[in-house]
Amino acid sequence: MSDVSFVRTDMLPEQDPPGSEVGAIGWLRHNLFSSWINGIVTLLSIYAIYFVLAGILPWVFQSVWNSGSLTECREIMTATWGQTHGHACWGVINERWLQLLFGFYPKELYGRPILSLVLLLVAITPILFNMISRRMNWFLLVLAFFVTAVLMDASVFVWILRAGFAGATLVIGYQLVTLSGADRAEQIAQGAKRLPNPLMFTAIYPFLMPWLMWGGTIWPAICTAFGFVIGYLVLRFGKAYMSELLTMIVAVAAAVIWWLVLSGYVSSGLSSVLPIGIEAVQSRQFGGFMLAILLGVVAIGCSLPIGVVLALGRQSDLVVVKFLCVGFIEFIRGVPLITLLFVASLLLNIFLPPGTNFDIILRVMIMMTFFSAAYMAEVIRGGLAALPRGQYEGADSLGLDYWQAQRLIIMPQALKVSIPGIVSTFIGIFKDTTLVSIIGLFDVIGLTQAIRADTSWNGIYWELFAFIAFLFFIVCFSMSRYSMYLERKLQTGHS
Amino acid sequence: MKKTVLLGALTVAGLAAGAAAAGTLDDVKARGTLNCGVTTGLVGFAAPDADGVWGGFDVSICRAVAAAVLGDSTAVEFVPTTGKTRFTALASGEIDMLARNTTWTFSRDVDLKFTFVGINYYDGQGFMVPKDLGVSSATELDGATVCIQTGTTTELNLADFFRSNNISYEPVPIETNAEGQQQYLAGACDVYTTDASGLAATRATFEAPGDHVLLPEIISKEPLGPLVRHGDNEWGDVVRWTLNALVTAEELGVTSANIGEMSAGTNNPEINRLLGTEGTLGAMLGLDAEWAKNAIMSGGNYGEIFAKNIGEETPIGLARGLNAQWTNGGLIYSPPFR
Amino acid sequence: MTLLTDPPKESFRLSMLLYDTRYRSATIQAIAMIAFMLLAAWLINNAITNLNNLGKPMSFGFLTDTAGYDINQRLLDYDSQDSHLRAALIGLLNTLVVAVLGCITATIIGVFVGVMRLSNNWLIARIMTVYVETFRNVPVLLWIILAMAILIETLPMPRAFKGDTPTATMDLFNTVAVTNRGVYIPEPLFSRSLGDIHFLGDMALRFDVSMDLIAFLIVLGLSIFGMRKVTARANVIQEETGDRPKTWHVLLGLLFGPSIVLMIALGFHLGYPELKGFNFRGGIHMRNSLIALWLALSLYTAAFIAEIVRAGILAISAGQSEAASALGLRPNRTMRLVILPQALRVIIPPMISNYLNLTKNSSLAIAVGYMDITGTLGGITMNQTGRELEGVMLLMVVYLAISLSISGVMNWYNNSVKLVER
Q1: What is the mean pLDDT of chain A?
Q2: Which chains share 3+ C-beta pairs under 8 angstroms with A?
Q3: Which of A11, A175, C204, C217 sits 20 to 30 Å CA-CA off B112?
Q4: 8 Å CB contact of C139 and A334
Q5: Is residue C43 part of a domain?
Q6: Residue C105 belongs to what H/E stretch?
């Protein structure tokens, strides 16, 4: 036997890949010029990009920022570049950007919508980012309040507030810095007291926000919230005396009676006795981008409970209930939003008792709520459908009744699955708020009409719309990214 | 049981809401502000500035009424309305008066049930064309593309005009004056038609106003004026006579500059009656004696308002024309204060 | 022995309505029904009272009144002396035109972009992502306004075609004029036309049908019938002999021959747009309000469709495309024969709602002055007559009918391509 072996027994040393396959060149070859056609397409695309940017960039950057009117702008342009074409006049944004953001909201009160927005973000963090700890959430909240207190006009009362919030911020902040999450978890496991659930603030927020935005005394907000308290109390203690269904009916009835009949007198009475409050702002003064956000948030916030009810109704075995819910949902989804806005601006008063009159923003909010409720119902229905059958059967086998099963088992899961859908519904509604300009409200697009009716800015066009498009893009894009992130995160749970 | 409770609640809500309807004058006084419907923006007539303060010819009428009723020309809530929403807003009580270059027509007065309290601007529908089109009369516009602002009487007048002259045209409906201006300047339409005042105002803000001409034809009568709901005559009188006070003030030479010394008393009894130093005209209207003085002080007399907002000194540069005092050959004419 | 007796017959008590699960659902439904009826009655009662107070009780009589305004784009004959109902009908047709055109182009663009987003060309994939994100995240109203502004500002006006040294010329061998008032394309004309048949005499819903069109449809139908016969015969021969006779030239001849003969018989020629006076005359005028709306709606909706298509393709497991490669299919055939047919099932349901959205968004035509039904019935008619309640109600009914029919048709199609599971 010879030693000659025809099979190699040892590995050859690895060689570097050829230069054309690695580094920038390799990347280019793979991703841009992998074939003839790809190469041509790439070159064409590069030309297209150049063409678009060459048109837009000089317009955006070779522009006039400081001018009080379009005529002035044109003079500056002619003086600088010799022509008025191809240069933006950002002077209009410079002069009107606050108006585009806040509408006619009183300038000295701009802090209130900003605070509402910040608090909104704080209020929804426990829902949207469940990896944030309670301590973090409370820290953000007290910090927001502390900053507000610092910005308020000083009085003895405000000084106490400042001190209080500063103290709370420091205490929680110190804990956050010194104590890692794991240590804290151990402490809690050993029986340390947890901070209260930050969802508490989320529950308060719907009553706080209108007060901050509209101002006036604080009593209407408190009285409205008290209706829920009444309903809850009846539900809690009524069971001992009545059947469950009856309790629920009584609870709803009690709350409704409180809201419709009593709360008005109580809150006006309290307001005259104890006028605690802030300066009232008419809803006519709302406008601009703030109005879009407000309409979107109110519509989504109010439509969430309605949407849940509609979705459950649609799945219900009760024929009449199902029929009513399907009818409502399909009707709203079948007509364009603009017709509903026509109803808000032209017809809603006709359907209410003679002489009833409430302002257009409120009417638009009602119709937008209906609109988003129908879409929300479909999103939640999708969430319900995504739950495995076993969850329902499990709930039944535990002996839970319908409402208990919904409250404890079904809804928490279905809502969680629906969050990405809810966020995209919100994006849709938010974009659709621009339609209110058609019925004469001063949202951003409505404001462009008003601005262009000013003698100094008559004839301006692209700058305003570019600015608005930019604003919407920023907000909607970040929200849609968030929703995609969430979808990915939720998906890991399955399969 | 549940049913009756619910019904009861609804009835109570209905009654509470229903009780609010009383005379508009009392409502305005109780509220402390006047709700005045204006356009969403028309150069020279109504537009908010960077601070959200409204100004313009129509706005001044609102301010004058607020000054007359409440003594404060800033106590006005301006409600922007579109061509579609304006009448509903007025009919439903959302606004107390509408000062939104609205044409006084039979059907609006009789069928839609509004009361036009007077005319603050005599207008008519005109045409604007670029000079280099070489058109000197609207009858030469056969086959032209015409931009029309919708939501007004304009499109009906236009259809009638072209039909009666037996010439064809291509209508391009547009929502706002700003859009119309843009389309016209870009040449997407040959002709722009709307109220002549609007045309002049629009032309004034062009880069080169001289390149555009207004054609001589005025194809309609457009008496523009403030209006209120039918059936509330007290309130109608307040708005009507506030407007008349502004007109009379110009006729009698009462201006915001000299009103101080004039209200000390003059030899002209009509001025004295107007300014409340003689007679009880204010009380008859349910206002205080200085109502007209306040109205005039809010923005000046009719002539001053005109000059300040749309007159020849402004970029808009409208001549008085038909809107001159009757003593100067115009149509502005107020019934006497007596 | 046990005695079998009937269980004691329960007498019906009122409380059973609430406590007995057999009756409880009936009780709840009855309450819901009564509450709904009460609410409806309350609303209607209020409406009647309010309308009487305003002095305009509900009536649809205004629909037969003279409209008095002109509409530029009309698919049926109309002038200002026609009724409001006729104007509404013209508007409805305009809505349908833009909706159909928009759905078609949105689908084409959307599928293209969706597939391209998965391209292995990095740059193309990025550009498509930028397109999708830009269009999805800015309100459609803004896009419509911007599309209109771009058309108006960048295209030449008809005057630019005039004079000795025109600054603009017509495209495609002088047959198409692209102006900022719209695009003029050649129109088919017949010098020996068969004329039109007029239906419904003088009524608001009257319409004409071109006999030429009917003749064409008949001829085309016969051609297709003939083609089927030929194919069937070829199949039979193939079954019997194993050889398939060449049929493509016969088929081609059958498809085009009779139509071409008919066209010659009717004297077919194209009518080209010509600049006369202020505007181009002749040809088919696609107004820029239509183009802007069409463009904006299709680009906006296409961004959503692209995402749906992409998700649909990604939902097909990688094994499918690997299997296709293993069979030796080229990438584009893999896409066409394996991936897309399967992805279609995932894609269609969300596609339906996008078509619905597009149709509903076409109501924003009002922003560019396109006279759709919101512009005629819900716009000028409502302004002129002051009949808001009736107008809005009709508008809603019309849109509801359109939406329901679209979703009905699409659901039927969806069911027909659905995987039949056993």
Answers
A1: 85
A2: B, C
A3: C204
A4: no
A5: no
A6: helix C84-116
Q: Which residues of chain B are under the pLDDT cut of 70?
A: 1-22, 151
Comparing CA positions, the residue from B224, B223, B229 lying closest to residue B97 is: B229
Spatial distance between the Cα atoms of A214 and C20, rounded to a whole number of angstroms: 48
- Give the sign of the dihedral formed by CA A49, CA A50, CA A51, CA A54: positive
pLDDT single digits (tens) A58-87: 888 888 888 888 888 888 988 888 887 888
Spatial separation of the C-alpha atoms in residues C57 and C234, rounded to whole Å: 69
Does C45 map to a domain?
no
Residues 323-362 of A with CB under 8 A from B: 342, 345-346, 349, 352-357, 359-360
- Indicate the number of domains in chain C: 2
Q: Residue B88 corresponds to which amino acid?
A: T
Give me the mean pLDDT over the C390-396 stretch.
Answer: 93
What subunits touch chain B, counting only 3 or more CB pairs under 8 A? A, C
- Single-letter residue type at A134: R
B190 to chain C, any CB pair closer than 8 A? The answer is yes
Which CATH number goes with the domain that contains C339? Answer: 1.10.3720.10
pLDDT per residue over C215-266, tens digit each? 889 999 999 999 999 999 999 998 888 888 888 888 888 888 888 898 888 8
Shortest CB distance from B188 goes to which of C157, C277, C379? C157
Chain A residues in contact with C29 (beta carbon < 8 A): 318-321
Phi then psi for residue B34, to 5 deg, are -105, 130
Q: What local confidence, expressed as pLDDT, does residue A22 receive?
A: 77
- Regarding whether A271 and A144 lie in a shared domain, the answer is no
For residues A122 and C78, give the distance between their C-alpha atoms in angstroms, rounded to a whole number. 58
What range defines the domain where residue A136 resides? 107-215
Q: What is the mean pLDDT of residues C8-15?
A: 67
Residues C403 and C314 in one domain: yes
Q: What is the pLDDT of residue C10?
A: 63
Global ipTM: 0.86
- Where a domain ends, among C271, C292, C324? C271
User: Could you give the domains of chain B?
Assistant: 23-122+224-328 (3.40.190.10), 125-220 (3.40.190.10)
What crossing angle do the helices spanning C288-315 and C122-136 adopt, rounded to 10°?
120
Residue reference for tokens 């050649």: C186
Q: Would you say residue A368 has pLDDT above 90?
A: yes
User: pTM to 2 decimals?
Assistant: 0.88
Closest by Cβ to A260, choosing from B12, B47, B315: B12
Is the residue at C348 inside a domain?
yes
Report if residue A393 sits inside a domain: yes
Chain A residue closest to B19 (CA)?
Answer: A355
- C209 is a domain residue: yes
Are residues C131 and C248 both part of a single domain? no
Contact status of C43 with chain B (Cβ, < 8 Å): no
pLDDT for C422 equals 52
Residue-level pLDDT at B226 = 94
Q: What is the pLDDT of residue A130?
A: 65
Distance from CA of B332 to the nearest CA of A (A): 26
pLDDT at C243: 83
Q: Is residue A8 part of a domain?
A: no
Q: Which helix (H) or strand (E) holds C398?
A: helix C388-417
Measured between alpha carbons, how far is residue A39 from residues A389, B117, C131, C137, C285 in Å?
A: 52, 74, 21, 31, 39
Higher pLDDT, C13 or C207: C207
Last residue of a domain, which of A70, A97, A124? A97
- Which residues form the domain of C333? 84-171+281-417
Residues A76, A121, single domain; the answer is: no
Q: Are A302 and A345 within one domain?
A: yes
